[in-house]
Design a protein that fits this description.
The structure holds two protein chains of two kinds. Chain A is mainly alpha-helical. Helix content of chain A is 73%, strand content 0%. By secondary structure, chain B is of the alpha+beta class. A four-stranded antiparallel sheet of chain B has the order 2-5-1-6. Classes of the chains: A mainly alpha, B alpha+beta.
Chain lengths: 408, 117
């Protein structure tokens, strides 16, 4: 393996591990990032000449440590003295000598998703600190100006440092509230890629894989978190269907029309196994319910049809747990699948009576339109398709709705 | 790290210091002070008189301007502060949550600038 290939592989696997170690003591993510970047640059020069070291991570840590100490020496305003940094790094090196490089990425993720960090910045911060994403790439994924994203990330890192946000995994009493912020931040990364059904923008699609990577880190570092496992199972189930979400011409294919032969079975199996482990922990939650819903959809691959009874019940449970109008609308759609369009129509009307906000929501009108069409109420269906199209930004989805309207 | 736990109080909180609720008010802060000391995290602090006792000074263009009242007319005013020395922000927030003012006013947690450089 060439030195640059090795550096790339180590970067992917070790970036977050090394950053978590370098930043934990100083709480200075920006300084740790700079030091780590310099260490990787030094590796690209040194490794081809002298050969790659036996333990690339330890080499990179030692190089980054020197940069960090140099930087602390230069900076007059450092909150922590050089001696303190040296002491902290020595402790970590002793740990590294005793066993494998310690994995403190979970603590880093908790710091990034701290309630003291503005919510919209938690995911970008996590992508940068744990995965080493550039501000440009994160900005592209979240449709923000790169410069603005860079400035906001700098501010968030300053907040972590100055406010003294801890890099330790919080104690069990704080766990439920703090963990959900971490999970939401990871899921936001997944959703940013997933909500782009055309997959036209590779920067955005890429984030689904990165989110799954973060989910695997979570599952390995916090195997006792049922919701962490639930989130991983959910993302794996959804990602398993990626090859079936678009037809040969790149058009969006709805779930019920997807060719199950295109679903990635190994991901479905991993999702099922992960969800089983989650349910054994006996702490149900939002992500496990959502994963279970996707599991019931996936069962079409071997049962021939999805388990609609289960899907209806799970969406109803999700509505009660989260108060989400969208969950109740999805329950209505599942009722239509299970018992026919008339039942579904009644359930959809009941959903919008309970949550009037649904009348501003494109999928509500798309569902009504579809059900009216099935019931032969063509005029009502046309009106509902118009309402749906008026509430949709995505041109491909509008085209999909228009085709359905024209086919009436 | 050293933090200031700034207690912002509503008009009603300030009133509670002096009306029939005064004993509860002062006992609450007394117990909190005791808990901070018992935990070994208390390093200082002070209670402030109500905003009606405040006088604000500004120097503009070399001229001194003195006005009656606090620097800004806002719903919650600084009523006092505790200085604590704890491990990190989470520990500071845990103490802030226990502060009597948290249930009616707001507690702002702000790290102190380290002066020992």
């Amino acid at each position: 393996m060439s030195a640059s290939r090795l550096a790339e592989r180590v970067a992917r696997e070790s970036y977050g591990r090394l950053l978590a170690l370098l930043a934990a003591r100083t709480r200075d993510v920006a300084a740790a990032e700079d030091a780590l970047a310099e260490a990787f640059a030094a590796a690209l020069t040194a490794w081809p000449r002298a050969g790659a070291p036996d333990n690339p991570e330890a080499w990179l840590f030692a190089a980054a440590k020197r940069k960090l100490i140099d930087a602390a020496r230069r900076a007059q305003t450092a909150v922590q003295s050089e001696a303190e940094i040296v002491r902290g790094m020595e402790e970590i090196e002793e740990e590294m000598a005793a066993r494998d490089i310690p994995d403190r990425r979970l603590g880093l993720m908790f710091a990034c998703a701290h309630p003291g960090i503005e919510e919209s910045l938690r995911t970008p911060l996590m992508l940068q600190a744990v995965l080493g994403f550039s501000a440009e790439r994160i900005a592209a994924a979240f449709l923000v100006e790169p410069k603005a994203m860079g400035q906001r990330l700098v501010r968030a890192k300053k907040k972590i440092k100055e406010a003294g946000v801890g890099f330790d995994v919080p104690g069990p009493e704080a766990w439920p509230a703090r963990m959900s912020a971490v999970l939401d931040a990871v899921y936001a990364a997944f959703a940013s890629g997933w909500s782009d059904p055309m997959g036209g923008d590779p920067e955005r699609s890429g984030l689904t894989e990165e989110a799954i990577w973060l989910g695997r880190v979570l599952a390995s570092q916090a195997p006792q978190s049922a919701e962490g496992l639930g989130l991983l199972a959910l993302m794996l189930h959804l990602d398993a269907r990626r090859p079936a979400r678009r037809d040969a011409d790149g058009r969006f294919v709805p779930l019920d029309q997807q060719d199950v032969a295109l679903w990635r079975r190994e991901l479905i199996e991993e999702a099922e196994e992960t969800l089983r482990r989650a349910s054994q922990l006996g702490e149900p939650g939002r992500y496990q319910l959502e994963a279970a819903i996707q599991s019931a959809h996936a069962s079409r691959a071997w049962r021939g049809s999805p388990d609609w009874d289960a899907i209806v019940l799970l969406y109803q449970a999700l509505t009660e747990l989260t108060g989400s109008p969208v969950a109740l609308l999805n329950a209505a759609a599942a009722i239509a699948q299970r018992g026919g369009a008339e039942d579904g129509y009644e359930a959809a009307e009941a959903a919008s009576a309970r949550f009037p906000v649904l009348r501003d929501y494109q999928p509500y009108w798309a569902l009504l339109a579809d059900l009216c069409a099935k019931l032969g109420r063509k005029e009502a269906a046309r009106v509902a398709y118009d309402e749906a199209m008026a509430r949709e930004q995505d041109g491909a989805v509008v085209a999909f709705l228009k085709a359905r309207r024209d086919a009436l | 790290m050293k933090y200031a736990v700034l207690v912002y109080e509503t008009n009603d909180d300030f009133a509670a210091r002096e009306d029939a609720r005064a004993k509860d008010y002062w006992d609450g802060h007394g117990a909190y002070f005791g808990a901070l000391q018992a935990a070994g995290v208390f390093t200082g602090g002070a209670g402030l008189t109500p905003p009606r006792a405040a006088t604000t000074v500004r120097v503009r263009g070399g001229a001194r301007q003195v006005t009656d009242g606090p620097y800004a007319d806002i719903k919650e005013q600084l009523g006092g502060f505790y200085l604590i020395d704890v491990e990190n922000l989470d520990a500071a927030l845990a103490w802030a949550e226990k502060c009597p003012g948290a249930r009616t006013g707001s507690i702002e947690v702000r790290p102190l600038i380290e002066m020992n450089q």
